Amino acid sequence: MSATITRPAPGSRPTRSRRCAGTGSPQTPTTSAESPPWPRCCASVPAPTATIRKRCASTRRRPRAITGRRWSISAGCTRRGRASTGTEKDLLKAMAWLNKAADAGNGSAMNDLGYAFESGEGVGQDYAQALLWYRKAAALGEATAMTNIGAFYDSGRGVEKDAQEAYRWYKKAADQDDGRAQDLIGTLYLNGSLGEKDEDRAFSWFAKGAENDDSDAIADLGVMYEEGAGTAKDEAQAVKLYRRAADLGNARAMRFLGMNYAEGIGVARDRAESRRWYEKAVAAGDDEAAELLQKLKDSPSAASAIA
């Protein structure tokens, strides 16, 4: 394991804003007849409270916020499907809902449209359209969209690769406590993408991302402790951080735990536990863990321990 983090900075599935309409500012609720009912498939998501409605009503911007939020949530439910409520997955219908929500000024829906075009989910893959929608969402204050724009410049997808421009967008999102953006800034510093490699700044940014519960930032912070990069070496602390990230579903952290148990780093060597974590990582989609798991199984010294 190296303190240089080489994983790419791809776009990830957007998260919905917690603001009134996900547009960066409180909005005015609507009483339009076009308002869809609060989605039955999202019964666990509460409708805006009286306090939120009052706060939204105190401004005079965009009158269709609540409608936009409902359309956006309807799109999310339809895109994923939910067996418990009989909601079938329907990407075309989800795209229709997202477009309605975006037309109503919903920033998180614009961000989701960007993701759809970036990933090709429910629509033809189109990086130019993805970037267009991300920029619209970012203009409304959506931190996730800002991070997604930064990731385009970081990776050079659809635009010329530009680490400084990536940093500029990540920083906008990081200033809103976006943990993923904070983690990616740390990666830029650690890999020397902004000039000389700076482990101290990388550690600081990973720590900020970890405070905001970004699982990649937590795992990366663990790497820093394990390698003694930007901080005193502490293998036990690294293992704690890997567990925390793994509990959040981070496949890379699960792989790291498998490696640590296989090699006895920060924990007692335990091949059975190593295998268990590798299998978890593989189930979570980590290809490198699959290779390590096979090597563990093929190891003569492991035959009796993991049989």
Secondary-structure blueprint:
Elements: H1 50-57, H2 65-80, H3 91-103, H4 107-119, H5 127-139, H6 143-155, H7 163-174, H8 179-190, H9 199-211, H10 215-227, H11 235-247, H12 251-263, H13 271-283, H14 287-298, H15 303-306
Quick take:
With 307 residues, the protein is mainly alpha-helical. Helices cover 59% and strands 0% of the residues.
Architecture overview:
Helix 11 packs antiparallel against helix 12. Among the domains are: 86-162, Tetratricopeptide repeat domain (Serine Threonine Protein Phosphatase 5, Tetratricopeptide repeat), CATH 1.25.40; 234-300. It is 59% helix and 0% strand. The protein is mainly alpha-helical. It has helices at residues 50-57, 65-80, 91-103, 107-119, 127-139, 143-155, 163-174, 179-190, 199-211, 215-227, 235-247, 251-263, 271-283, 287-298, 303-306.
For the record, the CATH architecture of the domain at 86-162 stands as: Alpha Horseshoe
Q: DSSP strand (E) fraction? A: under 5%
Number of strands: 0
Question: So what's the CATH class of the domain at 86-162?
Answer: Mainly Alpha
- The number of distinct helices, counting runs of at least 4 residues, comes to 15
Sketch the topology as an H/E string, one letter per element.
HHHHHHHHHHHHHHH
Task: Describe the structure using short key phrases.
307 residues; mainly alpha; Serine Threonine Protein Phosphatase 5, Tetratricopeptide repeat; 15 helices; 0% strand
